[in-house]
Specification:
The structure holds two protein chains of two kinds. Chain A is an alpha/beta fold. In chain A, 33% of the residues lie in helices and 27% in strands. Chain A has a domain of 177 residues: 3-Layer(aba) Sandwich (Rossmann fold), CATH 3.40.50.300. The chains are: A alpha/beta, B mainly alpha.
Chain lengths: 258, 256
C-alpha cells in the first residue's frame, strides 16, 4: 500500500490535557493510515480517545503534537469540502426539514437553491428518505434521523466520511438494518469511511480493516484486516470467520499489552 | 399538547373566567358584597365603555401607552443584548453574574422616591423606572437564551464550514428564538407594571394617575373599569406573545 493511496495519514498524534492532578494523555503518539475507498473501523474501550482522534482528524480539535493530513492537506481546521462528519447524535437542526438539513452545508456556501435541491433529492433517495424530505427531525425515527445526518455528511462529495459512533443510540434491530444501508450508501458514494464504534461486531462486519485501541494512554495496539467477502450479508454475522476476528479483538481489548 | 387537549384547557379557562364574572355580578347585586366597594361588573363595563369615548381618559391612555412603548423599545434590546454578552463571555458572567443576582432580589419600588427626586414626575421618570424594573427580568432571559443553544449544533455547523457570523445567524438565533420571545413578553409585562406603578406614585397624567385619583375619591366603579382595561390589555398581549413562543418551542423540538 503506497503513501499516495492513503486518504488519511496521522503521524504521532498526541493529545494531552492539563488536569488538577497532572497531565492527562488522551492520545499517545497515534499513527494511522486510511487507504482510499476503504472502510476502516476504530474500536476500543470507552476512554481510549477514539472520539478525540476523530475530532482531530475532522479538524474540530487541535492535536497537542503530531499532524494529520487528509488528501495530502494538513488539517488545522474543519475542511467540509474534503471531510464529512456524522456524529453520535444526529445533530440535525430541529427547525429545518430533512431536505433543508441535508442542504445545510451547501447553504452555508451560498450555493444556488436549484443546485442544492437537486443534490438533496439525490442524497435523500440514496438514504431511502425521498418521501420524508419535508418532515422535521422530531417527526422522524432515530434511524431516519441518522440517515439524514449521513446524507448531510455526504452532500459536499467529501473524500472522507468520519462517523463517530453513529449507531450507538439506536436499538439493536434498527442498528443491524442501518449496517446494510450504510454499506450500500458507502458503495454508491465511493467515499472513504473512518468509523468509530465500541461494538466489536459492528467494527468487523462493516470494515475492510479494524484499528484496535487501548486506553490509558489512548493508543492503537493492533491493525487487523477483515477478509470477509463483499458485499456483506447479515448471514455473515454468524460466520466463524467473523466470530474469530471478534474474539481476537476482544482478547486484545481485555488483556492489552502495555 | 395536542389540539383537542389545548381546546379543552381553553374551554376550562373560559368557564372559570365566566364563573368569576357571574359571581362578581351576583355578589354585588345580592348585597353579599358592599356595592360601594364592589360595584356590579355590568356597571363597571358600562363605565369602561363610556370612558373609552371620553377624550380626557383617552389622552391618559395615550400617555401610558407611549411610556410603555418607549420603555419597552429601550429595555428589551438592551436587556437581551446584556444577557447575550454575559452568556457568551465566561469572564463577564463570572464578574457580573453575582451582582446581577443581588440586584434582581432588590425591590426596585423602594427607589421610586429617589427616581422622582432625580427625574421629576414627567414621562422620563416613569420610563426610566419601568426600564430599571424590567431590565433585571429581561437580562436573565437573554442569558438563558444563550445557554439554551445546543453546543452540539454549533460543533456540527463548524464541521460543515459555518463562519462565526453564520453560527450566530443560523444556529444561535433560531435556537434562542423561543427565549428571546419570552424575554420580549416578560419585558412588556414588567414595563406596563413599572409605568402604571410610577404613575400612581407621582404623575401628571396616565392611567395610573387616574386609578389613584378614583381610589382617593372612592369611585370604585371608575377605578375598577380602568383596572379592567389594564388587565385586559396585558392579558391579551401576554397570550398573543405566549402563542408565538409555544409555536417556536414546538418548532425547535422542545416540548412546550
Amino acid at each position: 500500500m503506497s503513501q499516495g493511496s492513503d486518504v488519511v495519514v496521522a503521524r504521532d498524534v498526541t493529545k494531552s490535557f492539563a488536569t488538577a492532578t497532572g497531565t492527562f494523555v488522551a492520545l499517545d503518539r497515534v499513527s494511522l493510515t486510511v487507504p482510499d475507498h476503504k472502510f476502516v473501523s476504530i474500536v476500543g474501550p470507552s476512554g481510549c480517545g477514539k472520539s478525540t482522534l476523530m475530532q482531530i482528524i475532522g479538524g474540530l480539535t487541535a492535536a497537542t503534537t503530531g499532524e494529520v493530513t487528509v488528501d495530502g492537506l494538513r488539517i488545522t481546521e474543519p475542511r467540509p469540502d474534503q471531510i464529512g462528519i456524522v456524529f453520535q447524535d444526529p445533530l440535525l437542526l430541529p427547525w429545518k426539514s430533512a431536505r433543508d438539513n441535508v442542504e445545510f452545508p451547501l447553504a452555508l456556501r451560498g450555493e444556488p437553491k436549484e443546485k442544492r435541491r437537486a443534490r438533496a433529492r439525490e442524497l435523500l433517495a440514496m438514504v431511502g428518505l425521498s418521501d420524508f424530505a419535508d418532515s422535521f427531525p422530531h417527526q422522524l425515527s432515530g434511524g431516519m434521523r441518522q440517515r439524514v445526518a449521513i446524507a448531510r455528511g455526504l452532500v459536499r462529495h467529501p473524500r472522507l466520511l468520519l462517523m463517530d459512533e453513529p449507531f450507538a443510540a439506536l436499538d439493536e434491530q434498527t442498528r443491524t438494518r442501518m449496517w446494510s444501508e450504510l454499506l450500500q450508501i458507502w458503495s454508491a458514494s465511493r467515499a472513504t469511511v473512518l468509523f468509530v464504534t465500541h461494538s466489536l461486531v459492528e467494527a468487523v462486519y462493516l470494515a475492510d480493516e479494524v484499528l484496535v485501541m487501548a486506553a490509558k494512554p489512548g493508543r492503537i495496539i493492533e491493525r487487523l484486516a477483515v477478509d470477509l467477502p463483499r458485499p456483506r450479508s447479515l448471514d455473515m454475522l454468524g460466520s466463524p470467520a467473523l466470530g474469530a476476528l471478534r474474539n481476537r479483538i476482544w482478547h486484545l481489548i481485555a488483556e492489552p499489552q502495555p | 399538547m395536542s389540539g383537542t387537549a389545548s381546546w379543552r384547557v381553553r374551554g376550562g379557562q373560559l368557564l372559570v373566567v365566566s364563573a368569576l364574572a357571574l359571581a362578581w355580578e351576583f355578589a354585588a347585586r345580592s348585597g353579599l358584597a358592599d356595592p360601594d366597594i364592589l360595584p356590579p361588573l355590568s356597571k363597571v363595563c358600562a363605565i369602561l365603555w363610556r370612558l373609552l369615548h371620553d377624550a380626557d381618559f383617552l389622552a391618559d391612555v395615550r400617555i401610558t401607552g407611549f411610556e410603555v412603548l418607549l420603555a419597552f423599545a429601550i429595555v428589551v434590546p438592551l436587556g437581551l443584548a446584556a444577557g447575550f454578552l454575559l452568556g457568551e463571555s465566561q469572564r463577564l458572567e463570572r464578574a457580573f453574574g453575582g451582582p446581577l443576582q443581588l440586584l434582581m432580589s432588590v425591590p426596585k419600588s423602594v427607589f421610586l422616591p429617589v427616581f422622582v427626586l432625580i427625574f421629576g414626575i414627567g414621562i422620563a421618570q416613569k420610563v426610566i423606572f419601568a426600564i430599571v424594573l424590567a431590565f433585571f427580568i429581561v437580562v436573565p432571559t437573554g442569558l438563558a437564551a444563550v445557554h439554551s443553544v445546543p453546543h452540539g449544533l454549533v460543533v456540527a455547523a463548524r464541521a460543515f464550514g459555518a463562519t462565526r457570523a453564520q453560527i450566530y445567524g443560523r444556529i444561535y438565533l433560531p435556537a434562542m428564538a423561543p427565549l428571546i420571545v419570552g424575554g420580549i413578553r416578560l419585558g412588556l409585562i414588567f414595563v406596563v407594571h413599572g409605568v402604571v406603578f410610577a404613575e400612581m406614585y407621582g404623575s401628571t397624567g396616565g392611567i395610573g394617575r387616574s386609578i389613584l385619583g378614583w381610589g382617593e375619591a372612592f369611585q370604585m366603579d371608575y377605578l375598577l373599569s380602568a383596572v379592567l382595561l389594564v388587565l385586559g390589555a396585558t392579558v391579551a398581549l401576554n397570550e398573543t406573545i405566549q402563542a408565538v413562543e409555544t409555536r417556536l418551542r414546538t418548532r425547535n423540538g422542545v416540548a412546550p
